[in-house]
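Kindly review these tokens for lecture notes.

. . .
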Amino acid sequence: MKMWSGRFREPLDANFEAWQRSFPFDWRLLPQEIEASKAHARLIAAAGVLTENELAVILRGLDAIIPSAMDRATTQNKLAAPTMAASSPAEDVHHFVELELTQQIGELALKLHTGRSRNEQIATDMRLFVRDAIDATLNKLIAWMEALLNQARKAGDAVMPSYTHLQRAEPVLVAHWLLAYVSMIERDCSRFLDARKRLNLCPLGSGAVAGATLKLDRNIAAKALGFDGPTPNSMDATSDRDFALEFTQAASQLGIHISRFAEELTLYSSAEFGFLELPETFSTGSSAMPQKKNPDLTELARGKSGRLLGSAVTLSMLIKGLPLAYNKDLQEGQEPVFDTVDTLEGILRVLPDFTRALKFRFDRMRSASESGFLNAMAAATYLVHKGVPFRKAHEKIGTAVRYCLDKGCELNALTLDELKQFGEEFAQDFFDAITLEATLDCHDVTGGTARHRVREALKDAEARVRQLAKYSTVDLGQKETAHAGA
């Protein structure tokens, strides 16, 4: 029997019924639905709808649903959850729990829906699901940052070219380049944490649209589920999917960063660059060309970032024209969130180990840093220290570079007499000012690639990641424990 069948005389069209069911995908919300139902049971018990004994029976029955359903499904097929969804007559995850609870405890199960609506149930389940996903993502991002920091420590004072317009620009420490991605991921973490803070309010007690018809203490359910409090407006609570949109948008920005990292590694591992050796355990070969080792991981990561972007766009398009409050359209907002979680989980499951396994060819990187006039900026700075206005210094070094190009040499191969044709300011100390080490160290500002600045930046980044890891494993873990015990 449907949860809403009393109003209807005719059965649903069979094709329509199969098409509109959400249980084939929202079965993933079963753990969240169980926890939210337990919180609601406590809520209505406090309002006098359930006795203490009835509450205890319902809580035991809810706890038995997942083991019982999975056991039955596993008997039929090794793919327990999809089998459960396919074989159940349930319309959605809420209907499934009601049917299963009725099997467990009889008609008492029908009391559980007192004072609530599926509109608030799905809003609550999705908030719990997204919150769990954010916590899991943060832990995986910490692991990736730690892998990047480990590579930065190992790199020490190793040097590589930096690029603008994909042309060699100035030398930087390899550690400096790696820390750029740590900075990106830190911003990603902050976006996920901000989204988590905003979503952490409980819709239970909002009813279908206007609020529960019973006098409920909504703080009971909020506390049981680890929320900071109840949502302030019932219409907004049942129709709000900002939290899902924020999550997918944060994931899409993370995907962009992952894609940029993947693109650089794909380029740097090519024979034309030769800056790194791809680990064989994360690469595949060609079925036609025996010599090939293909960067499949980086290419897949680059490609899958497009799915993350697509999910955020899908949710934006879904929500943008909806009137208040709940509309069935919102059912379509679940699968983009599920796909985002699955895509992130897949990428971040392999990315930390892959990053740790990278082998850089520091000699090739250094060699590339010593040619192509990457010390030209340091040369211009040398003239600035001699009192030459920067625009004039830029012109003088540019003219010297053109002279070197015609001659087929680098700036440090010129004689002092040759240099003086571009300006009397040149002296013997010019050659010390444009060595690779001096070129690095002239960028002696916070955030610059001077060697001692990068060592400081590495220590600071390690401290920030340690702090984030402490927050993630302690504070978030406590919230998860409270949620699991609700």
